[in-house]
Protein: Peptide transporter ATP-binding protein
Organism: Saccharolobus caldissimus
Amino acid sequence: MTLMQLKNVSVIFEDREGILRKKKFYALKDISLNINEDDLITVIGESGAGKTTLGRIIVGLQKPTKGNVIYKGYDIWKEKRKIYSTYRREVQLIPQDPYSTLPFNKTVEEILSAPILRWEKLSKNELKERMIRLLQLVKLVPPEEFLTKYPHQLSGGQKQRLNIARSLAVNPKLVVADEPVTMVDASLRIGILNTLAEIKNKLGLSMVFITHDIPIARYFYHLINRGNTIVMFAGRIVEEGDLEEILSEPLHPYTKDLIKITPSIDNLHREEEVKINYSRVEKGCPYRLRCPFAMPICSQNEPSLEQYTHKVACYLYGKKQ
Ligand SMILES: Nc1ncnc2c1ncn2[C@@H]1O[C@H](COP(=O)(O)OP(=O)(O)OP(=O)(O)O)[C@@H](O)[C@H]1O
């Protein structure tokens, strides 16, 4: 069953140029996406591709400039009734940074009980049981020992596990994990990904998994054993399909480039990146500026996402307009 749909969502921001001039650009352009119950959707792309903005749109922290965000059939920015609060509860974010998102002056018990009590009336015992279950779920054990700790008494990996527990505290149906292991020590990443996958499978959650790292995307995909992937560039979806299919038969020149420089896309065109901000390209396909296959049409129009072997937005495939 479809849980959430994004329909032609665009987000336009402004850059300040000097004191008075502002210039608009698309942080997201014409994004359509279906998220079903129990789905895994992996979002891949380099820095500035719009991944975090997409995550913020899904959890309702960012209002689209254009387009619709539909949850359980209701447009959440038009519908102000009960469905809006249901949506805000059922769709949660696991933020990237475990260090700055946890309040330093609150104990684990206070951090976990706040979101639960915002939505539910529980007795003291019920609340404690719920928190213990949550800590067990994210493998902060023995849970009783963690309840009285402050964030500064936890390691980076434990902080991120607490972040995950906090997102799960209100029994969400859909979780957006925005680079959940990027800021965690490399040696702890696999453990956290394993826990996240175990939780997703156990609770039947839908998950949007955002990463700039193909090996991490691939590792997580194989833990879940299925899942759709979108490849983003300059606020656009340039390729969409099953992750293994995309990796074995990439279509878009950008995806091919990404795969070539795996294991890490951190250095992708970093020097060039300083000069070109692709989401600010106003006409045509933004990728044409570094695409070895660019044709005249690419600077005139922007290709739409079309079905080929899987979906791709590139004039190299299908009809040329
Ligand atoms: N509030 C904002 N105001 C203006 N521009 C913004 C805002 N938030 C993001 N941007 C810009 O929108 C574009 C997309 O940013 P976003 O953070 O979504 O990308 P990303 O793929 O998540 O990259 P990163 O991994 O570096 O966070 C970038 O050019 C960014 O500078």
Q: What stands out?
A: The pocket of adenosine-5'-triphosphate is lined by residues 13, 27, 45, 47-53, 212, 279 (CB under 6 Å). The longest strand covers residues 2-17. The chain has twelve helices and twelve strands. Residues 234 and 277 are 8 Å apart (CA to CA).
